[in-house]
Amino acid sequence: MKLFYTSKSQYARIVRVAIIELNLTEQVELQEVTVRDRNSELLNYNPAGKVPTLATDDGFILSETRIITAYLNHLNPEIKIVADYSDGFSQQLEGITTAFLDGISTWTRERRFRTETEQSPTIIELEESRALRILNYLEKIADKLDQTPKLAHITLASGLGLEIRLPELEWRQSYPKLAQWYDEFSQRPSLQVTKPES
Ligand SMILES: N[C@@H](CCC(=O)N[C@@H](CS)C(=O)NCC(=O)O)C(=O)O
Fold first, then answer.
1. 12 and which of 40, 52, 91, 101 could share a cystine (Cβ 3.0–4.6 Å)?
2. Could you name the CATH architecture of 88-188?
């Protein structure tokens, strides 16, 4: 199997963390690629051109973080990373944390890849209020977050990890329980070796 990734992608980071937590590092080869690039090697495999992309041993090309993670989880079902229907709360959290990551990614891209005149205040305001609503919700239920490497927790940690690229988010002081959860969860070796540098 081969995982196509970029080191900057927080979505690909979720899959890289899952590979480590599922003890599948020997089975999955990692290939770094470029995105938004007509000459990217990835386009020979996936017309969507997005990371993460997984080329499976049985010849399928999987996109979308949750689909890939669920596929990897079925290879080691003893460890439960992706929630099933018996765990409604984790499924609920998977949805909300994915929306958080999607929103923060949009906001970050707006700031980093567009000139000041191209940046849309409407989009930034929309994503900022979405992020704050979700952070308020997560702070309220912080005692229900634990330190197990579930997809929802990994997704949340990946979203919060974008603080390095979006200092204006400034979430730590207002959400102390969440900050405590995040700082402890981030100590996991899988999170440490995939930590974004910039
Ligand atoms: N919904 C997708 C999002 C993946 C995504 O947006 N990946 C970005 C990198 S963080 C990408 O590949 N962008 C390339 C592009 O937009 O062409 C998932 O869950 O995997």
1. 52
2. Up-down Bundle (1.20)
Q: What is the pLDDT of residues 62-81, one digit of tens each?
A: 999 999 999 999 999 999 99
In this predicted structure, the answer to whether residue 197 has a pLDDT above a threshold of 90 is: no
Return the sign of the alpha-carbon dihedral for residues 45, 84, 73, 160.
positive
Q: Is 98 in the pocket of ligand 1 (CB under 6 A)?
A: no
Confidence band of 162 (pLDDT split at 50, 70, 90): very high
pLDDT at 174: 96
Cβ density class 31-62: b for 16+ within 10 Å, e for less:
eebebeeeebebeebbeebbbbbbbeeeeeeb
- What are the boundaries of each domain within the chain? 2-75, 88-188
Place of tokens 């003890």: 23
What is the distance in A from the centroid of ligand 1 to the CA of 50?
A: 5
Please say whether the beta carbons of 112 and 165 come within 8 A: yes
